[in-house]
Amino acid sequence: MPGLTGKVALITGAGQGIGQGTALAFASEGVDLLLAGRTLDKVEETARLARERGVRAIPVACNVKSLDDLSAAVDKAAAELGGVDILVNNAQEVPLGPIDQVSDEAFTAGFESGPLASFRLMKLVHPHMVRRGGGTIFNFASSAGIRWDMSHYGCYAAVKQATRALTRAAAAEWGRENIRVLTIAPHAESPGLKSWIDHNPDEAEAFFRTIPLGRIGRLEEDIGRALVALCGSDLSYLTGATVPLDGGQANFD
Fold first, then answer.
1. How far from 74 is each of 35, 81, 101, 210, CA to CA, in Å?
2. Exposure of 208 by Cβ count < 10 A (0-12 exposed, 13-18 middle, 19+ buried)?
3. CA 24 to CA 67: how far, in whole Å?
């Protein structure tokens, strides 16, 4: 992708799943990486794979619910890589279940790891992006937020819909600074989705039948490469939108 070589991306939840797939897709385009995740061994492995593609990749242990950890990650990206051009707010704890069975702790963790962490990181990287002439921020939502039957998904949907609102606000406020903010709503072969499939086989079978393309997205090829494309000049007029990478399943209109 012309123009991405030498850019710097900060990716949360980079030790596995979508975070790792996105990291490797960016590495293939010459993007240097600050890779954040709760389990250092996992992000170190992602960094090793990224370095094999010829880029700088720095792994850091980071709990996205900790403002101190988030600040340290951004500071490290600035000190060792020069700043941040791309932010991928991927990490998220998922509060699932009937409303009367989801604990206050689980619901709070969903907000702290989701919209609050995204909000904090957006503010932390903003001055670096301004200094570097702009940037692209990706927040993550879910089609759970627009289900016709919200049973067992209400808490998760509330978290994700809050994230979409933050995206719209940041896109409106920062557009004149050449900072684009997008929400991604993916279906991908992540450990979380695989676990859900294992624990909900009947619902999963029905779920697959609703995907027009008939498959779940591949981590690097379908999700990571799409984020690479969205950072490119051909899509530089797109901001504030929710982009469903879900094989055509959801209708966000």
1. 10, 10, 36, 39
2. middle
3. 26
* Partners of 88 in the β-ladder: 11, 138
CA distance 134 to 6: 14
Q: What is the pTM of this model?
A: 0.94
Tell me the DSSP string of 8-57. EEEEESTTSHHHHHHHHHHHTTT-EEEEEES-HHHHHHHHHHHHTTT--E
Q: Is the pLDDT of residue 60 over 80?
A: yes
Question: For 7-24, how does the pLDDT look when each residue is reduced to its tens digit (9 = 90+)?
Answer: 999 999 999 999 999 999
156 is catalytic: yes
Residue 117: closest CA among 160, 168, 172, 60: 160
The C-alpha torsion from 45 through 223 and 233 to 46, rounded to 10°, is 0
Q: How far is CA 160 from the centre of its chain?
A: 12
Active-site pick, 156, 164, 219, 243: 156
The CATH classification of domain 8-242, taken from the options 3.40.50.720, 2.60.40.420, 3.40.50.1000, 1.10.1740.10: 3.40.50.720
Considering the chain, what percentage of its residues have pLDDT values greater than 90? Answer: 83
DSSP-based three-state secondary structure for 71: helix
- Above 90 in pLDDT, residue 196? no
CB atoms under 10 Å from CB of 204, counted, come to: 15
Angle at CA of residue 163, ends 144 and 181, nearest 5°: 120
